[in-house]
């Protein structure tokens, strides 16, 4: 692509040191996650860039083969919740209708399901309290009049990641009609958030893992369900 280490790293959304290490150790085999990032970069490259790549690697003419996406296409067509997510992604990434579906189907066919399950297991080892304590340590306890909400249970302190201040506490207000008295500040819709290439790629990868791991995705107003419960 005729880019510097820094520019190529920026394009991939990774560190420049990683790209530099590839030059230093050309026989190094990247991990599966990094291979997926490189595959995506290759797919989006121009024909001229692919031809130069093939010439430099001695692989002859560059041939792009589309992976078998039959199973992924079946799941995408049958699940209305994922369909809604794909439509949202097309709209906010300003892509043509169906672009997200094709990208997710191809990426899902490349996902290493075993590695994805292993990564999910490692994430599950980090419990909610560990995340909250890490946030409290990183951001600190107080910022001006605001701080993280905390409580106690016997002799044990309980931290949360909820930002609050003294004026927000002890309101003695039941969060149900007619006590809450909440009103909408503005009926005007928020301007549409535009996803850049990095965010779009992350969304595609996450949806692809959802399909490959057969994870159930819900498109529902969870906050309303919690309040009614």
Automatic annotation (TrEMBL):
It comes from the Bacteria. This is Uncharacterized protein.
């Amino acid at each position: 692509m005729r880019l510097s280490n820094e520019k190529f790293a920026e394009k991939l959304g990774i560190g420049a040191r990683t790209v530099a290490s590839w030059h230093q150790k050309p026989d190094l085999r990247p991990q599966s996650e990094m291979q997926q990032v490189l595959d995506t970069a290759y797919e989006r490259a121009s024909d001229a860039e692919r031809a130069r790549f093939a010439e430099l690697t001695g692989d002859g003419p560059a041939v792009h083969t589309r992976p078998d996406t039959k199973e992924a296409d079946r799941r995408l067509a049958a699940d209305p919740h994922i369909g809604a997510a794909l439509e949202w992604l097309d709209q906010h990434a300003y892509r043509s209708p169906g672009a997200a579906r094709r990208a997710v189907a191809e990426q899902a066919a490349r996902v290493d399901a075993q590695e994805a399950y292993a990564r999910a297991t490692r994430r599950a080892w980090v419990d909610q309290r560990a995340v909250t304590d890490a946030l409290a340590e990183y951001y600190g306890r107080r910022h001006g009049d605001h701080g993280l909400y905390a409580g106690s249970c016997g002799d044990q302190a309980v931290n949360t990641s909820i930002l609050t201040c003294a004026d927000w506490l002890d309101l003695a207000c039941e969060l149900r009609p007619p006590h809450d008295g909440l009103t909408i500040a503005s009926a005007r819709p928020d301007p549409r958030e535009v996803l850049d290439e990095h965010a779009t790629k992350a969304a595609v990868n996450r949806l692809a893992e959802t399909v490959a791991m057969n994870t159930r995705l819900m498109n529902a107003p969870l906050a309303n369900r919690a309040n009614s419960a």
